[in-house]
Amino acid sequence: MVTPLVKAASTVLLLTYIFSNLCVIVLRESRLLNYQPTFHAPLYPWIQIGGTLGLVLVLLEMGADALLISMLLVFGGLLFYWLYGRIKSEREYALLHLIERLSDQELSKGVLESELKEIIRERDQLCIDRFEEIAERSVLVDVPGSLNQEQFFSYLAGKLDGTFGLKSEFIMNSLVGREKCGSTVILPGIALSDIIVKGESFFEMILIRASDGVKFRNESSPVHVFFLFITSEDERNFYLRAVTSIAQIIQEPSFKRRWKNAKTLSGLRDLILLGPRQRQCQMENAKVPASDS
After folding, report:
1. Looking at 188-289, which runs of residues are DSSP E strands?
2. Is the pLDDT of residue 62 over 70?
3. Residues in CB range of 208: below 8 A, 6 or more apart
4. CB-based contacts of 21: which residues, under 8 Å, 6+ apart?
5. Is residue 291 pLDDT above 80, yes or no?
6. Chosen CATH of 128-284 out of 3.40.50.1000, 1.10.8.60, 3.40.190.10, 3.40.930.10
7. Residue ranges per structural domain of the chain
8. Which three-class secondary structure state does DSSP give residue 225?
9. CB count, 10 Å around CB of 13?
């Protein structure tokens, strides 16, 4: 009586390790934008493949009883999910994203990316400061085709016409005027500009992706990433803090690659929201002296 129970318990552990190895492979190959583990297993994927094969061999060596228990557990889990779990759950799975990448079909709805974003926020204890609030409501623009500077400004002005009450002519003139004051390209492939508007306490951000690139004058590298701040004069101090935050985020080595490869526009926003930077609320907390107990 004891032997079957021991085999059942061992089978559960072995299956757990097998599926853990498989999960690492699926998550890595699904290329999820918000999958950002703090530890990366070395020699991927050979350790995971070797571990899976080794554990399967151990399972086979345990005999027919262990195999039968394994099959019953897997079948029982699938049956429970099919009859109950899939009806109650609205989650997405990394395997779906892997199939989506391999088949080049749109199957996911971004639910898993949102869940991973919340996990990262909780794991890294990311506080929400004003910059994040602005990034959360930022306007997203995807620029089609390869354009030159004038074509890009014209497309952007037309796309943003009426946004925040701004007219396309004003946006066009502001972009051209800002560029005449000095190049807005801050790094190869990345540019940042601003538009000054009337009023007080106004600050908004627009995130723009040009997958095929925009050829700016006097720049050898096409621009794929463009940040546009729309701000009132009294927000210049916060503008400098926002630029500093952007500068910290774009220093991440894989930023440009992930920006270009993001499957959805909301993925661009997540890159900014979860990017590495010094948050204002963290700085304020650091200034508070510890109280005596």
Report:
1. 190-197, 203-215, 223-232
2. yes
3. 140, 141, 142, 143, 156, 225, 226, 227, 228
4. 48, 49, 51, 52, 55
5. no
6. 3.40.930.10
7. 2-103, 128-284
8. strand
9. 10
